[in-house]
Design a protein that fits this description.
The chain is α/β, with parallel strands linked by helices and 247 residues long. It has two domains: 80 residues, Nucleotidyltransferase, domain 5, CATH 3.30.420; 148 residues, ATPase, nucleotide binding domain (Nucleotidyltransferase, domain 5, 2-Layer Sandwich). It is 36% helix and 25% strand. It is built from seven helices and 13 strands. Strands 1, 2, 3, 4, 5 and 6 form a six-stranded mixed β-sheet that branches. Helix 6 links the parallel strand 12 and strand 13. The radius of gyration is 19 Å and the shape is globular. The mean pLDDT is 92.
Length: 247
């Protein structure tokens, strides 16, 4: 069994992979006061993994706390930490400094490359929204980054006198109250980014969405699309299998 761990900008997510299958994703907010106790309780109930794959873009102190906890529970487990590379697993990075590409983006591209052959536009809708284009032969064409839906709302609330952080106002469209107007506005802003990025390419790309707000954003986008909440884990599993078993 391989334990797959993804520490993002807000949440720690994990799942286990056995016989090539990936279980349901679990997650905890690592900013919560009871995070360490909660994670210890849940992880203590797991069988000892053969290996632990860890992808992290969080602050170093958060990562170190998770490493300490995991090493205490499973002192003999082999920890595998991928870093973004120039060319690996069928994906060639467009970055001049490949190590500067967020490892979650790199793993999502690897996951999409193997799960969905062909040219892909990979949109990760989390704390930030990232858009990456990968051609059918695995060449990363480059990407875009903007604030995620909640960050857009927080920016409005922090920099205006009376606008709230909208909590979700139901139907999306032209609104007759402020909460609904903000909720629809940020969704359409994100959808506009994706639609504009797709329209400006000179070939067709399959749209693959992942991340916590992927389903909400997908509803605002026309045409065919794929929703895959485990895209980063699929890429991480490819890395772990190669590192642990040479596969």
């Amino acid at each position: 069994m391989i334990l797959l761990v993804d520490i993002g900008n807000s949440y720690l997510k994990w799942t286990v992979a056995e016989r090539g299958g990936i279980a349901e994703t679990r997650y905890l907010d690592y900013r919560a006061a009871n995070f360490a106790a909660g994670l210890t309780e849940v992880w203590a109930g797991l069988a000892e993994p053969e290996a632990i794959g860890l992808a992290a873009v969080a602050a170093p102190e958060v990562v170190e706390d998770v490493l300490k906890l995991g090493r205490k529970l499973w002192p003999d487990a082999n920890w595998l930490r991928p870093v973004s590379a120039r060319n690996a697993f069928g994906v060639a990075s467009a970055y001049r400094k490949p190590e500067k590409l967020g490892v979650d983006r790199w793993l999502a591209m690897i996951g999409a490359r193997h799960a969905y052959p062909g040219a892909n536009c990979i949109v990760d809708c989390g704390t930030a929204i990232t858009v990456d284009f990968v051609s059918a032969d695995g060449r990363h064409q480059g990407g875009l980054i903007c604030p995620g839906l909640r960050l857009m709302k927080q920016a409005l609330a922090a920099n205006t006198h009376a606008l709230p952080i909208a909590a979700g106002a139901g139907e999306v469209g032209l609104a007759a109250d402020t909460d609904a107007a903000i909720d629809s506005g940020v969704l359409w802003a994100a959808a506009g980014l994706v639609e504009t990025a797709l329209r400006r390419q000179n070939q067709h790309y399959r749209l693959v969405l992942t991340g916590g707000d992927a389903a909400s954003l997908a509803q605002q986008l026309a045409g065919d699309k794929v929703l895959d909440s485990q895209l980063v884990f699929k890429g991480l599993l490819h890395y772990c299998i190669a590192a642990e078993y040479g596969g």
